[in-house]
Fold this sequence. Notes:
Elements: E1 5-12, E2 22-29, E3 34-38, H1 45-53, E4 60-64, E5 69-72, H2 84-94, H3 99-112, H4 128-140, E6 146-150, H5 158-173, E7 177-181, E8 194-199, E9 202-205, E10 217-223, E11 236-242, E12 245-251, H6 252-264, E13 270-277, E14 287-288
Parallel strand pairs: 3-7, 3-8, 5-6, 6-7
Antiparallel strand pairs: 1-2, 1-4, 8-9, 10-12, 10-13, 11-12, 11-14
Amino acid sequence: xxxxxxxxxxxxxxxxRGPWVLRGIDLTINAGxxxxxxxxxxxGKSTLLRLLARTEAPTEGRVSGRPRTAYVPERFPSALPxxxxxxxxxxxxxxxxxxxxxxxxxxxWLTRFGAAPYARTPMTQLSKGSSQKVAVAQALLAEPELLxxxxxxxxxxxxxxxxxxxxxxxxxxxxxxxVFVDHDPSRLAGVPDATYRVHDGTLNRRTEQVTSPVxxxxxxxxxxxxDRRPPTVPHTRAEEPTPGTYRLTVPASHxxxxxxxxxxxxxxxHVLSVIRADAPHIPHDQEDHR
Length: 290
């Protein structure tokens, strides 16, 4: 994400004399950040996300910065004259991929979300849950610098919800930013870098930020040269019990990304153990957020 996205004194209303849905909004989204947006129904959360995704323009104020952005709307238009693989392949070419590369990426993402069995079924025949998998896949296809998710987990099955959490971890680990709304308060609990609440058309950062991830966790013990530190993903907590041996604790949603990076390192780290735990005791002074 080459430039931060900024909203400066942004307001939005839908008619000339209509009520302000949002007003006086100041917000900066930086590379690698995970931002949660909260608020009751009808407060303007979706409007804020559409402004961030630039599918709507502000009535007043300024939006600056143009990261490559992908968006999963609250209501995905599933009645499209495509099959899932055809739709994703088309979008991939729009994003600049060759047709062959776009087709491979489409197959990969549909497989990850368990949608491969109906990859060639007309989208008009898909269930809401199946359509939602396509909606999520289309947003992740081009490795966006800014990923905007409006209730993106709704309608997904358990495996696909976990896969989306892993994809969010991958985006932030790669330096992308993610902004999301979700009705489940436990979604990525403790992981966001900041949580904002929309109320009465204003946006306020919650000050009671959770400083440690909420379980489940995965604890990975690895070994390598004493003068080398292992790769980490956002919200990794690290201890070095003995020189060259590290105990890395991450939210379970981030563990696959961490393991992949450890094994892809050159030379790779030797993974001694991988243990799942609900609430391991990790000293706060060992935390490495980035």
